[in-house]
Design goal:
- The chain has 130 residues and is mostly beta strands.
- It has one helix and seven strands.
- The chain has a seven-stranded antiparallel beta sheet, with no helix packed on it.
- The longest helix is centred in the first third of the chain and has 19 residues.
């Protein structure tokens, strides 16, 4: 009988210790993006017709990326062959802008290329045109 009680106490203790000990947090293996792009439009929200698209571009530390070449491609995935492209003009403080004429409403995909020195970054951004 003592062996059963002793064994039961040991099993119960093991279960309690396991329940109290939390699982180890997985290590964060993702590294910050080398470039962060925040998009804004004028008018806001963007509508069919002429739209100015502004990109505020910063590095992983939040510092503005100035003096970059910023190319922008826009395509309407639902309408094959409908698209446009051009180079954004640097404004100041890591802000770049480009004017576009959207002939159709819906979801557009913007592909933004940022190039400067050894930086060659590409990001796809969704833009809804009303």
């Amino acid at each position: 009988m003592r062996k059963v009680v002793f064994f039961s106490v040991m099993v119960l203790t093991s279960v309690l210790l396991a329940a109290c000990g939390g699982a180890a947090e997985p290590a964060d293996t993702t590294s910050p993006q080398p470039v962060n792009i925040v998009l804004s439009t004028n008018p806001n929200p963007a509508a069919v017709g002429d739209v100015e698209i502004m990109f505020t571009i910063t590095d992983a530390n939040g510092n503005p990326i100035e003096g970059a070449k910023v190319d922008v491609n826009a395509e309407h995935p639902a309408m094959a062959g409908m698209g446009m492209s051009g180079q954004a003009t640097e404004q100041s403080g890591g802000t770049y802008s480009i004017k576009a004429n959207f002939s159709d409403s819906g979801d557009w995909k913007l592909t933004v290329y940022v190039r400067k020195d050894d930086l060659d970054y590409k990001e796809d951004i969704e833009l809804k045109i009303q």
